[in-house]
Amino acid sequence: MQPQERLDSWKEIAAYLKRDVTTVQRWEKREGMPVHRHMHNRLPSVYAYRSELEAWWNNRHPALEAEDGERRPEVPWKQMAVAVAALLGVSLALWSLQFLPNTALGTVMREVADPSDVLLWGGGPSADGKYLPFTESEAGNLALLDLETGEARVLTSKVSWGESPEHAFSSRISPDGESVAYSWSAQGDFFDLRVIGIDGSGPRIVLRNEDVENLDVFGFLPDARSVLVGLSNDRSRSELAIVPLDGSPTRTVLTFESATPFQVSLSPDGYTVVYDLPSRSGAGDRDLFLASTDGGQE
């Protein structure tokens, strides 16, 4: 193949497909998008060939269009992200109705966030219903939305997208409302698990493994000392794991060899996890499973 046909980073691959880095990383993991790796370095760099990507796209685009909308090369990825954020904003507003008393169902809904400011929503509101974590679109920083006032506060300190492709990805607020656990895309090549105070103080890296290509934060355990995360190292293997925030060893809860859960939820007592998997190989419909977090039977 000709050298100019090769794309030598997640950023170049994403630009070629007119998507953001997070989307193409998801496609590589879940849709079999052809991405290669140089494994001789400590940090496995990625590359892809345009011809292979085109062949893959021609085979997969009907399913991807159903998931991600019609491919329009002339539309910048940020505009697409704004559209998705707007849809999520409507979903959030409808979700909030379940907490209103029956006598208040006639209350007029109010907008609490400008969709253009939001790249990704976090995993859910704080236990007291006051804050919602999200990734802001201006630079990819982790931020908090005050659901009472509509004011947003940026917690991390990245300046702009021009500085780097790094960004906050998945986030959850601790049960005591004191901190936020979040995954951070480091140079678009691997993910850290990080924790920061609700006021932006004391940011620290809890877990760094340069082989981790995707990391989702699914929830804190009740004592707020550990978090349940999803980790994946390549397209064929992923796991659910409990990561102590004090630096103690990570404990694997479940390992998946050929499929990855899309949705994972932790019970309030921290003893049970519910997750989905395809009902059969290659199926679009998915079944729900329960498992204990101490490694017990599914």
Please describe what this structure looks like.
- The protein is α+β, with helices and mostly antiparallel strands and 298 residues long.
- Helix content is 19%, strand content 35%.
- It is built from 4 helices and 18 strands.
- It has helices at 10-17, 21-30, 50-68, 77-96, and strands at 6-7, 36-38, 45-49, 118-121, 131-136, 142-146, 152-154, 167-173, 179-186, 190-197, 204-208, 214-220, 226-234, 237-244, 251-256, 264-266, 272-278, 286-292.
- The strands form 5 sheets. The chain has a 4-stranded antiparallel β-sheet. It has a 4-stranded antiparallel β-sheet with strand order 8-9-10-11, with no helix packed on it.
- A hairpin with a 6-residue loop joins strand 10 (190-197) and strand 11 (204-208).
- Helix 1 crosses helix 2.
- 33% of the residues are buried.
- Residues 39-44 and 69-80 have low confidence and may be disordered.
Short description:
This protein has 298 residues and is an alpha+beta fold.
